[in-house]
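User
Take a look at the entry that follows and flag anything odd:
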Amino acid sequence: MNDKTDAARLDAFRTDVLREICNIGAGNAATALSKLMNRRVDMRILRVLPLPFNDIVEYAGGAENIVAAVFARFEGSLSGNVLFAADEQEARHLILALTGTEQEGFSPLACSVIQEIGNILIGSYLTALSDFLGMELRPTVPSLAVDMAGAILSFSLMEIGRTSDTAIMIDAGLGTEDAPPSEERTSRIFLLPDPESFETIFVALGVGDHGKD
């Protein structure tokens, strides 16, 4: 078996492991959002994809696409960064699904809702990862910014790019009983462990040597 095929299979296996952790995080987030909004909220993991760092802006809708981004750094047994991004269409969908209120653009209400959703999603995924690995993760207080994707992501992730070249993109459909999760509207999380933390994660999961001779 050649190295390229071996690496592809390794990536697929490890991605499946991460997907299971993401499913737990999505369940935790749905429970937290349901309590916050006093109505049932469903989340469904649609895709977990290893992603080159330089492709993040493209997957956030393009450099000129206006987005709201919630960003946090985490330290502890593992270190890295995590980012939640929503464009105007997704922001309107999330606000309508969770509050029943129509919004245009990133109004103060829209930013407040997106900030809270981002806080819950980031916290839920990091808690799932921490519990699954049995490791302590300490996130910073998440921050929100609204700007063109190219500007906001380049500025927010500038320091990350100096040490990390790979992200894990998590697409999760979010909805309620009135507006079920849809593949056309997803909540997008970018998990960016520091390089040394990638292997630590998989060693802790018992798959650090999977695919190696």
Q: What stands out?
A: The CA atoms of residues 60 and 149 lie 7 Å apart. The helical segments are 3-37, 56-59, 88-99, 108-133, 149-156, 158-161, 195-204.
